[in-house]
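This entry is listed as follows:

___
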Amino acid sequence: MLAHPMMLPVRFAYRFDTRWGMNFHTHREYELYYFHQGRCTYIIGSHIHVLSPGDLILMNGMTLHSANPGPHHYLRTNMHFDPSYLREVLNDSIFTSAFETIGQLGNHIIHLEGESRTEVEQHLHKMNGLYQQNDAVSFRRFLLALLDLLYYIQPFCPTTGQSIRKMTEKELHVQRMLTYLEEHYSEELHMELLESALFLNKTYMAKIFKEVTGMTIFIYLKNRRLNQAKILFMMDNKVSVSDICYTVGYKHLSHFSRLFKQKFGCTPEQFQRIAHHHKLSTNSEK
């Protein structure tokens, strides 16, 4: 995904079908995701959402999330933006009134049809044209177009984060598994325990979890634990690495540190220093 040439904290990719490696992740920015074509199972936190063309996701990027697209064309538009940056460069009260409903209610899955779908797709097309221009005026117009889009979709936001479609029996079983893992990820887990707790055959569970999410149960569990560690480091720079290690469910510090570096490219101690520096920089700008 290309960053804007002005290197501002807004990224926009229009109608692209590149497939990234399947991976649960978090990021600081808010995310807007519009699904143009294909089929995709999108997991946000512990909820499964089966997407169809015309679906739009608005999401706090700090929620663990991942997409598992179908085998055919996977066309979407994706945007990341930092709300604090937009409050600074746009009129604060106007941006807040556009964003407050979306931001306060959490993550949203909106299904657009007919005129509303056409309106949003035309809006995204216009935003892409502005985003491609390498000048400050066009970029300001792009931000104003985003503001207008937020106002437009605000009435469509549901009041809960529940799935907008009925799930198949297989997807409902995986939803139960995700809910259980979310509640118990910091504990010692094995397939026999899951089999006993969920009353499902362990071989069947392993098979349907991989089919629906695109990864194994224990790769999901590893990602869930490591992303929780990342969040805890960002929240408190004084907490010890060993405390975080045990809190998220690992028994051995060396094993935790090795997995953390494999996933994030730095040791827990290095990430803690980076997060602390970012927090100081953000506070100094206020």
The CA atoms of residues 243 and 253 lie 9 Å apart. The first strand starts at residue 10 and ends at 16.
